[in-house]
Structure formats: C-alpha cells, structure tokens
Amino acid sequence: MSKFRKLSLVGFSLCVSVAIAGDPVVDAVQARSAEILAGVRDAGSMQQAYEDATMLADYIAANASARQLGAIVEAESAHRLLQLTLMHPDAVRGLDGIIKQTLGPLNSTPRFRTQLSLLVDDHDDIDGVFTLAGRLAGERAQAVEHFPALAAALCVVHDNPYQRSINENRVKSPDPIEIFDYFVSNNTRMTNDLSTMPAELLVHVVDVTESIEQLEWALNTYGRFPQIGDRFFEISYDYDHFRRNTPKKVTEAGDYRIQSIKQYGGVCADQAYFAESVAKACGIPSCYVRAAGADVSHAWIGFLETKGRSRAWNFDEGRYEAYQNLRGQIRDPQTGEVV
Questions:
Q1: Who's near 265: CB < 8 A, 6+ residues apart?
Q2: Under DSSP, is residue 191 helix (H, G, I), strand (E, B) or coil?
Q3: Mean pLDDT in runs of 10 for the chain (339 residues)?
Q4: How far apart are CA 102 and CA 200, in angstroms?
C-alpha cells in the first residue's frame, strides 16, 4: 500500500462507523468486495482475488466523490485484508486454514472486517490476529457488528498472550472473548459508549490484565464516579518497602490483583496500575506512565478525561513536581513499543 493511501485511511477509519447508509455506490462496493472475498477458496484463487481487490480499490479511489469516503474505505478494506493474508502464507495454520476459519466469518461481518483491516499493521502477528478475528466473527457475529472497533482493538492487542510486569509482579490478561463479553454486557454502565469509540483509543481499554471478577469489582465499586486521579492516591504508600527495602506487603500476600493492592497498599507502580485498571474496567482509555528521575524512577497514571462534552488525555495525576519536566514513557498496547 502506498504511504499516501495508508495515511489517508487513518482519517477515513474514523468515518467507518458513520458511513452514509444506503448510498448506492457504497452498497455496490461493499457487495463487490464481499463477492471477491467469497471467491477465495484456495491459495490459487487468493492471488486472483487480491488482483481484483487492487483493481477495485484503485478505481474507487480515483473516481469516488468527496461524499463517498465510505466506498473508498470498503474497497480498501477488502484489498488490505487480502494483502495481509498474502504477506503471511506460511502462517501456523496455513493459508487454507486462514481462508476457512477467518475470511469466511469476516465476510459475514463487514463492519468488523473493515475496522480490522484498517487497524492491523505489519508489526502485528497476522496469524494471531486472524485466529482471534475468526473466533470473534464466528462466535460473536452479531455483537462484533455492533462493536466492530472494540473487536478490532482486541485482535491487535491480543494477537499474542498479553502480559506485563509491574515491578516484581507479573500480570496477564484473561481470554480475549471473555474481555469482549465483559465490555459488551456492561457497555451501558461504562463512562464512555464503547460502540462509538475509535479503535485507536480502544486499544488502551482492552489491554486489561485483571480477571473478569476483578474488573467487575472495580466497576461495581467505582463505576458511577471513577475519578481516576483519586484512585491513584487512594492506595496507601508502603513506606517500609521504600525506606527499608523490606518486601512489599502486597507482594508477600502472594495474590497480586487490584483488590489486594487496595487492601495492602504499594508504591507508585502499584498506585498507577490500580488507577489504570479501574479506568479500563469503567471503559476509560488509560495507560501506565513512567520516567527515570535523578534519584529514583516514578510511575503515574494517564487517562482520557471527560469534561462536559470535551475529552483530552490527562497525564498530570500522580505526577509529582520533580517529574513535571521529565518526559514520561508508555507502552503501546498494539506494538509493545515504548512511546
């Protein structure tokens, strides 16, 4: 894909969920895209389908009007999906497995297919993305069409088992299908409507590393008034660990989770992780921020803050004065890279 086309699609992807319904050009392109994908039955027909999709995408990009961005997105999504598949013909399940288990289900969930094809990138584990996409489209078809960006965000974050370290403690995500079900079933209780949130923000929601039970506890406890900044300072600081280097009480308890952090306290890393996890449980994009100071490193919380009808990232809560002029770092949930 050309650099221009890819950069353009970043903007177009925001229009996917609000594409003009009933536009005959959009409908015709969607039907033709579905026909091309349905024609893929083996490795031989895959190449022909890719050539057909390329021709369709180029033609629509050259001839669609400014009011027909939806048609451009539909054509490019089929083209990109096939392009990504061809880039990984030696995937673990093999090309035939991808065709049967992924392209078929995705073709019956066009909104999800479009979101996924525009979000996935070269650095993603395509086999892992397609495996999870096939599961979601096959087992939760109706729900993924109502929450296509949420499903797409899950696929690129959980293309491999998602886990991380909070200092000496290791945390990992539950099954991605369980995560999807949690957010869908609780969407009316979320701070934000996840059915309308862009996938680029949702990757900072679905990268949860607490059990469903813990997420439900956080939602039941803080759902009405999340106040994420307050959640950071709610956790009592383990001064004995900081001053005397004794084992942290929460680590000694042997059951590292957000309820344990609430009970035993911790240091800044645990405070930030607690606030971050509560935010995600309530449908608020959030991230764990860290920086190295002259004497000691520090962690604080970043989250999408809502004020009236406006939303903006807040990176100030828990960021003490000594760290105001230091550049913080976060981990990109999709790529794993430090930002």
A1: 235, 236, 237, 238, 249, 250
A2: coil
A3: 40 40 79 86 82 92 84 88 73 58 81 90 86 93 96 96 94 97 98 96 98 98 94 94 88 95 96 98 97 87 92 94 90 93
A4: 22
Of 12, 36, 32, 16, residue with least CA distance to 24: 32
CA torsion 95-99-102-104 (nearest 10°) is 180
At residue 210, what is the residue type?
Answer: E
| Of residues 87, 74, 92, the one with CA closest to residue 31 | 74
Dihedral sign for Cα 6, 334, 281, 229, please. negative
Nearest to 303 by CA among 320, 322, 323, 282: 282
The CA distance from 100 to 113, in Å, is: 15
Task: Give the global pTM.
Answer: 0.85
